[in-house]
Specification:
Blueprint: E1 4-9, H1 13-22, E2 28-33, H2 37-47, E3 50-51, H3 55-61, E4 64-67, H4 74-81, E5 90-93, H5 100-106, E6 112-117, E7 127-133, H6 139-150, E8 153-157, H7 163-171, H8 173-190, H9 195-215, H10 220-227, H11 233-243, H12 246-263
Parallel strand pairs: 1-2, 1-4, 2-3, 4-5, 5-6, 7-8
Antiparallel strand pairs: 6-7
Helix pairs in contact: 7-12, 8-9
The protein binds 1,4-dihydronicotinamide adenine dinucleotide and (2S)-3,4-dihydro-2H-pyrrole-2-carboxylic acid.
Keywords: Amino-acid biosynthesis, Cytoplasm, NADP, Oxidoreductase, Proline biosynthesis
Enzyme class: oxidoreductase
EC number: 1.5.1.2
Length: 266
Amino acid sequence: MQQLSIGFVGTGRIARALISGLVNDPANRICGYDKDPDAIAAVVKQFGIEGTSSAAEVARDARIIILAVKPYQIGEVVEELRPHLTTGHLLISVAAGITSEFIRQHSIDAMRVIRVMPNTPAFTGQGMTALSKGIMATQEDIALATTMFSAIGRVAVLDERLMDAATAVSGSGPAYMFSLIASIAEGGRQCGLSMQDAILLSAQTMLGAATMVLNGEKTPEELIREVTTPGGTTEAGLKQMDAHHVRQAMIETVKAAAARSNELKQ
Ligand SMILES: NC(=O)C1=CN([C@@H]2O[C@H](COP(=O)(O)OP(=O)(O)OC[C@H]3O[C@@H](n4cnc5c(N)ncnc54)[C@H](O)[C@@H]3O)[C@@H](O)[C@H]2O)C=CC1
Ligand SMILES: O=C(O)[C@@H]1CCC=N1
């Protein structure tokens, strides 16, 4: 069994979601550093990873370094890491908008960089990660990252120019899904259900509907037709969705998030 040494710089919300899945593989040896002592103490306590006291220590202890800080903090973290980086390292960035070229140019010329966009359902093993190869990264690096991120859900390998779109659909997507679940549940509550029952009915329905789509036998449009009886309840509901331009609103939601990811580009 090949041991993988993985180090996180930044152990906030998305890092915790990734660590929660990666710790299950005994082949992974995980360490982390966060400039907030409470953040690193929390992950050490929760997941039993090794805490370190600087980014330099992460570079010393890990071959794979995951940059999990806010986009505007990536520059300072790469500067801090640079003197400690070698061609033996692989840098993986989860930051929205930040290009692999920005990271390579601010680290070392031969740096192998992979840009990924995971999402918080990684906590349940049902994450979706899009990943793309920087110019110096190899197919072996992509294969390694694919295996790593498969521990927390599904993986799609994309050309980097599509990462803004992936960020908008699956990176930010859980927030839209939570919003839809909450809105449908609120409708149920207004029709007499308790909020607890309404959330259960709404969330389990989203899970079941998503599973049917992923089974891949039918398109979402075909599945809509199968639920909808002419003159029945679904048709009455869908008419309201159309009247309130819900589909168009969701399209515009994704386009706005992709545009913002593009604005964060460095
Ligand atoms: N939250 C999400 O659902 C997703 C977030 N991302 C990306 O992940 C990155 C992190 O986001 P979150 O985890 O949500 O943020 P967060 O604020 O929860 O975590 C960031 C962590 O980085 C630490 N940090 C900041 N500067 C540092 C430094 N110089 N050295 C070491 N640690 C430092 C902070 O103390 C904090 O604990 C962002 O770039 C975001 O675009 C990507 C996919 C999904
Ligand atoms: O909202 C954000 O910018 C990050 C990136 C994707 C999910 N959260």
